[in-house]
Amino acid sequence: MAEGLVTRSSRHGPKETMDRLEAEAKAKGLRVFARIDHAAGATEAGLSLRPTEVLIFGNAKAGTPLMQAVQTTGIDLPLKALVWQDASGTTWLSYNDPAWLARRHDAGSDVVESVTGMSAALGAVAEAATA
To answer: Of 78, 128, 67, 131, nearest to 102 (Cα)?
Structure first.
């Protein structure tokens, strides 16, 4: 897998995993900005794509300190999670590790608390969606 990418298998199909992810993000007080269905877009273009959906979500209290430290982190925020199905039918959930994002932008030690909180919340949401 790509550097900084966390990927975990899901016990549920793609739609249920994404529905669970969205519901859990909202239950944790995170704002859901968009849900993008790449497979539907492919179909509209006359192409095929296995289930592939992105959820964009976040919390300004957690993300803003990263952008205050290094404004370029805004390219990677709000957070995104990808739910996808591989050729064998296994459903996966992938997301960028917040600690990796901080290192990517050289955010420094001032954001450790924010990154730790983001990582914990994201891990909990992913666990609830896939378990």
So the answer is: 67
The residues spanned by each domain of the chain are 5-130
Question: Can you give 13-65 as a three-state secondary structure string?
Answer: CHHHHHHHHHHHHHHCCCEEEEEEEHHHHHHHCCCCCCCEEEEEEECHHHHHH
Q: What is the pLDDT of residues 38-59, one digit of tens each?
A: 999 999 999 999 999 999 999 9
Q: Considering the entire predicted model, what is its pTM?
A: 0.93
Residues 6+ apart with CB under 8 A from 1: 7, 94
CATH superfamily of 5-130: TT1751-like domain (3.30.310.70)
